[in-house]
Amino acid sequence: MPAKIYKNLIGGEWVESRTGQTYENLNPADTRDVIGIFQRSDKSDVDEAVSAARKAYEKWRLVPAPRRGEIIYRAAQILEERKEEYARLMTREMGKVLKETRGDVQEAIDTAYYMAGEGRRQFGATVPSELPNKFAMAIRMPLGVCGMITPWNFPMAIPSWKLLPALVCGNACVIKPAEDTPLSTYNLVQALTDAGLPSGVVNIVTGFGPEAGAPIVEHQGVNAISFTGSSEVGRIVGEVAARNFKSCSLEMGGKNAIIVLDDANLDLALDGVLWGAFGTTGQRCTATSRVIVQKGAYRQFSDRLVYRVSRLKVGNGLDETVEVGPQINEQQVATTEKYVQIGGHEGAKLEAGGKALNKPEYSYGWFFEPTVFTEVDPRMKIAQEEIFGPVVSVIPCDNFEKAIEISNNVPYGLSSAIYTRDVNRAFRAMRDINAGITYINAPTIGAEVHLPFGGTKATGNGHREGGLGAIDFYTQWKSIYVDYSDKLQRAQIDTGE
Fold first, then answer.
1. What is the Cα–Cα distance from 184 to 152, expressed in whole angstroms?
2. Is this prediction's pTM over 0.90?
């Protein structure tokens, strides 16, 4: 049966790209499986999408926020009904195992329920005026048209982090999903459409970054940009947005560490490292890519980790017994191979994995062995640079203070974790680790939607997704003064009279 052709969504209509070009969306576990054929869009498609969004915005911003929230609430209910269907499609298009894609859809559901409530909670402030017979307050206003560029590793959850708070705040949106995983964004937007979202409020343009993503960032009709991806691309996005005075939220890379102290529950820490490092095949910005172990526990912990990692089952994520799925594409496998070679040249000890899988059952997919390096120096490239693959570096350290120093001494600051039974050290770690997220006795992955998500240093530019952080980004403050004195009153001048 021929693969289904998916079109762009512009102004409520499904339309072909102006380019007349398309591309195939392939299953990374079995590239013979074509998920769908998608539009390869360019600037002309973006122009039409932005025009549709600007038109829809003028009506959408006037819809009372509680009514906007009710549409999002209905979308959450629809997503719940379709959770298994959408999870299976996501496993086919992205590769991660079913328990993870179910979690990805659930994250969109959770975000929808939370943001639906924000329809009645977009709190402002009322304050006493310095002048008599004068009322003062601050309210939240929408930004206008928001452009969104999303990654492939959380193909429904991350679009939900961006679309749903933007919508409940009264903005209209143009979204370009990652070229590797556009279908999950379609499914999310279909739920919103079926819930009653008006035409043109969300527009989807598919394609590749330079052709379809860059025009969104550059477009004069786009008021704000939300980007999740690499720090290299994010730097360019931020520079272009700054030149055009656009609000810009950047969520980028990580080089996240778990600290394991001598007093830790090693069984718990081992389970945490396995999940943190090899969940989503290491293809998370919050993935555990460094494990800093105090020397008293180092050898025992390393040996047990290598044993467990060598027994992880790799395969097609549709098989419920599989623990680690494929990488997203050939390029990611090549990147992982490059860093494994670098680690060997730098003198790290390769104790598990280290190569692409090429047995017959893996011949049509992009699979890589779960990999462990030990005896890693924290200055090595494999301990400094983001790999985005199933590779973890185990680093020995002398004490708690040195562990914190090693954890902080990377360009990124997204997620972090420490395993210890010492409550004093746990609280010092919360204070002293330079990261946007810190876990105590839990791995570096597993953020919840009602708390701010984001990082420090090269991870981002200070904005946060999730919870109030998202509401803050997708609104702008407006101060309002009502003078009912029936005379001219001059602030800062007449206050002494």
1. 9
2. yes
